[in-house]
Design goal:
15 helices, LRR_dom_sf, 479 residues, 14-stranded mixed beta sheet, Leucine-rich repeat, LRR (right-handed beta-alpha superhelix), F-box domain-containing protein
Length: 479
């Protein structure tokens, strides 16, 4: 009997079909096209065909397997798993016009057009209808991202979709899902004592809402699922919170509630938010100290420094620098801390490597020493830099490259190179041109490097630490 491709082992057949799908994706359309300046009644505008945007990866995968799905049932099942493995469900935005022509090639110089309205929740509704009708397709989804759905009504549809995705592993949700989802929604999603199913990665994205959305009485509800003992984050390995919102934002209390059961986190990413402080980060880090590998906390603007400093709370035995050292598996760190001391770099047995960023404004102690207005804090800060240099040198002896950067206000300190990065134009003006340090171009800062927004627009330069100290003594530069 003649062997066919279907007689091959599934692993080999899968590789062949994947190669065919990737080739089909390259040969097919990679962009969506549209028409600009469509003429309206009594108006004359030149019509142009334009590229509207690149097709999303899940659309490319679905289109690339269209021909494969029609060959055989085995191929169809493989194509469904391949195409639906990662799903991006986005809210439709804006408006568009469809031309009264079957193909762009037949468009004339003076075509007519009609305005088109589309349900902004069309993709969400169709996805829910598809998974309701075919639970097998829903089981193919491993990662899903919902973008632009922030209301209570759409969150109900989101959880309706998630309840049918039995093999889901990674999930990106609007932050409002922690307000509108009840304990049953979250317990089914995370798994309870009777379920093996659980997600390992959870991302919560926040944005500012319009006044109409915030004033809608249907959206002003909080079901507080985190207060339920049935909501358990024990299977979560990665937690990411990105962005800030003017409507029911995520707070430290939410992170503390999550930390009660999230004891196996490997990665914590809290960025771009003004409502979460180091208090919430500390709670998560304490509960997952034995498994934690990555910590990132980059607050929005300077809000991360404006909250109460846990270091100075009465009856607190250990401050944050010592607690971080008790995370034995920690490898990568990007942290905004209320205060910093040389104790953070005291343990040379740590596994840190790569880029490590610390943002602070204060030196640790029973009485805070603010670098901006406390001369006594400066000698302590130089000892912090020396301690960081010693740790970098010890890691290099072990064959590990570690680069530590410490951010204070507008300055970026790079201890390994004895450099300070920043904008020194105002210092030169203050000295009336008498203080002209040897400056080199710096690729660091101002935007996107310091973790603070609204910084200087001009490029940063770098000078040596000794020259910077000289500028401090002469009051040409300030912390």
């Amino acid at each position: 009997m003649t062997a066919t491709i279907n007689d091959l082992p599934y692993e080999l057949l899968s590789q062949i079909l994947q190669a065919a799908a990737e080739f089909n994706a390259l040969q097919g359309p990679l962009y969506s096209y549209g028409l600009s300046q469509a003429p309206e009644p009594l108006q004359h505008a030149q019509l142009q065909r334009v590229i509207r945007g690149q097709l999303s990866p899940d659309t490319l995968r679905f289109n690339s397997t269209e021909s494969l799905r029609q060959v055989a049932r085995r191929w169809h099942d493989w194509a469904a798993e391949y195409a639906l493995e990662t799903l991006y469900v986005s809210r439709w935005r804006g408006s568009e016009r469809w031309m009264q022509s079957k193909t762009l090639g037949t468009v004339h110089s003076q075509p007519s057009s009609i305005a088109v309205y589309r349900d902004p929740y069309h993709s969400l509704r169709k996805t829910m209808q598809l998974f309701e009708a075919n639970i097998t397709l829903a089981s193919c989804v491993r990662r899903i991202w919902f973008d632009g759905y922030y209301g209570a009504e759409t969150n109900t549809m989101i959880f309706g979709i998630l309840n049918r995705c039995s093999n889901l592993n990674c999930l990106t949700l609007p932050w409002t899902a922690l307000r509108y989802g009840d304990e049953n929604d979250w317990s089914r999603l995370l798994g309870d004592d009777d379920q093996i199913r659980t997600i390992s990665s959870l991302e919560l994205l926040a944005v500012d809402l319009k006044d109409s959305q915030m004033s809608n009485i249907n959206n002003r509800v909080d079901k507080k699922p985190l207060n339920s003992p049935h909501v358990n984050f024990r299977g979560l390995k990665r937690l990411k919170i990105f962005g800030h919102s003017n409507f029911m934002p995520l707070m430290d209390e939410d992170l503390i509630a999550i930390s009660h059961t999230a004891r196996n986190l490997r990665e914590i990413h809290i960025t771009g938010t003004a409502s979460v402080t180091i208090k919430g980060i500390e709670a998560l880090a304490d509960s997952s100290a034995e498994s934690l590998e990555v910590v990132e906390h980059s607050p929005r603007a300077a809000d991360g420094f404006a909250h109460e400093n846990p270091t100075f709370v009465p009856k607190q035995i250990d401050h944050l620098c010592q607690k971080i050292l008790r995370c034995p598996r920690l490898e990568s760190l990007s942290l905004t801390v209320p205060s910093l001391c040389e104790g953070l770099f005291a343990d040379t047995s740590v596994n840190w490597y790569g880029e490590m960023q610390i943002r602070t404004m204060t030196i640790c102690g029973r009485h805070p020493l603010f670098l901006k207005n406390s001369p006594d804090a400066q000698p302590e800060f130089w000892r912090v830099l020396d301690s960081a240099r010693f740790l970098v040198a010890m890691r290099e002896k072990e064959g590990v490259e570690l680069n530590i950067e410490i951010f204070v206000n507008n300055w970026i300190f790079e201890p390994r190179c004895f450099l300070v990065h920043g904008n020194f134009d105002s210092a030169v003006m203050a000295s009336r041109g008498m203080w002209l340090p040897e400056r080199s171009h710096s690729s660091k800062g101002p935007y996107g490097q310091t973790g603070l927004y609204g910084k200087d627009d001009s490029p940063y330069e770098s000078i040596s630490e000794e020259i910077f100290k000289d500028g401090l003594e002469k009051h040409y530069v300030h912390f």
